[in-house]
User: Which sequence fits this backbone?
């Protein structure tokens, strides 16, 4: 069981699933952000945003999801 903690929230989630992922970026900016909703059987956490998604012009939904999964692992506490 993997546990994740987010400094902006007073919560720790075990084995969350990302249910919604959306990328936000501005034309001409080198990076954007990815917002997610994390869910467990007992909780739903909205407002989690990962900044720094590379806005290099060519990316797919799978690229956004893969990057968000990598960012989630940075918040793993065990």
Assistant:
């Amino acid at each position: 069981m993997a546990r994740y903690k987010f400094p902006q929230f007073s919560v720790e989630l075990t084995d969350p699933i990302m249910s919604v992922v959306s990328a936000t970026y501005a034309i001409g900016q080198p990076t954007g952000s990815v917002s997610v909703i994390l869910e467990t059987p007992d909780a739903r956490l909205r407002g989690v945003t990962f900044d720094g998604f590379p806005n290099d012009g060519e990316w797919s939904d799978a690229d956004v999801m893969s990057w968000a999964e990598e960012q989630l692992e940075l918040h793993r506490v065990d």
In short: DSSP finds one helix and five strands in the chain. The mean pLDDT is 91. The first helix runs from residue 61 to 73.
